[in-house]
Amino acid sequence: NSPTPTPEDNIQAGGEVPDALKTLILQAAIKIADIGHLYASHDVHIKWSERLEEEMWRQGDVEKQRSMKVSFLMDRDKPGVTKSQPGFVDFVVRPLFETWVACFPKCQTLMDRVEANYHYWKLKEQEQIAEGAPAETP
């Protein structure tokens, strides 16, 4: 009596994948592509993180001008995306990529790059604490 193969086993073996799982895989692939700067080289990741933060702050500026409540991470007077990267990786990115790599082991390099960029943000956070500034998390 052999154990029932997991979806990961079927994918890795090139076996049949149910349509619902195909849809889920495509949705995950789109999300992974959307946050692609997280697994880019360090320099590219930093540039895109800064661009993303500026784009979000501009949206917050428009919301302020329209007397709207400023959306989360979009207020340039508060910590932004670059200050929240460790938490974003911990709670969103890492679980997504761990699952992805379980299905597609050849993508481990992407996870390794995510981890390298994550460590950059953690080090930056620790440096701020050492300088006496509180860790800025939204």
TrEMBL record:
Residues 1-128 form the PDEase domain. GO terms for molecular function: 3',5'-cyclic-nucleotide phosphodiesterase activity; metal ion binding. GO terms for biological process: signal transduction. Gene3D superfamilies: 3'5'-cyclic nucleotide phosphodiesterase, catalytic domain. PROSITE patterns: PDEASE_I_2. Keywords: Hydrolase, Metal-binding. It comes from the Eukaryota. The keyword Metal-binding applies. This is PDEase domain-containing protein. It comes from Hemiselmis andersenii (Cryptophyte alga).
